[in-house]
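Side project, low priority. Logging it here so it doesn't get lost.
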Amino acid sequence: MTTPPPPEIGRLQSKFLDKTFSAHPSAWDSLWRESYTPWDRGGPSLALQDLLLEQHELFFPQSSSNANDNNNKKKKTALVPGCGRGYDVLLLAAFGYDVTGLDCSATGIQEARENQQKVSGEEAYAPKFDGVSKGSVKWLEGNFFRDDFLGETATSPGGKFDLIYDYTFLVALPADQRPKWAKRMSELLQPGTGRLVCLEWPLHKPASTGGPPWGTSAEAYAAHLNHPGEEIAYDESGAVVQPLPSSSSSAASALKQLVRLKPKRTHKAGYDEEGNVIDFISVWALQ
């Protein structure tokens, strides 16, 4: 008999209590079917939008004003794993990317398709650059850690993506899956010009409270992305233990941080009680 969760464990956390990682997709789908989606933000990330507009040269270095203009033979490609209802998928399409929204839940993907129809005319998803047409959108149920879904979507040369956006995806994974997350990001990112964007949240949550979502830190992102696939030790408080692995096996696939900043605007969940932004957003590229 399964032991009932302690009273302080919330509905989301209790859904994953005592489950193996292989059983997590069915748990997420169950939450979607129950219409219990506390991770849903109801709209696109203003932090991501501002980043793409204000740090334009990081993403479109060969253009001073326009991104994927209509004269380009092939648009840049983007991936949003754990896309949910797909608000950020639609936002990236408005910037001209051909975007894949990936989720392990079939119900979640159906919600994304319905949401796309619902918000199609909203200003938030209008093209962001003059002369730049919207990119295509594809919704896929699939496993981020497997290659199966790649054959169903447009990617850049070599099956890589020009941009991958992570928000609430890493922190939905147990800590022992973080090495795999970093390695997979490294495998899917286009060398040279590819960018991984992480909206870091929840930075304020102690790791001892469990997950999902799991608390994280700037040090955790850096440790894993600098050493993809390698085990990173944490102490009881959830802090990264120093020194980090010295192995050079991941040097070729390591990611470096290009920029990390506090956004001017973010989702409501990224503010403290005084109205201050507590989120950070970071951009990474292969070494």
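Brief comment: Residues 43-286 form a domain with the Rossmann fold fold (CATH 3.40.50.150).
Revisit when time allows.
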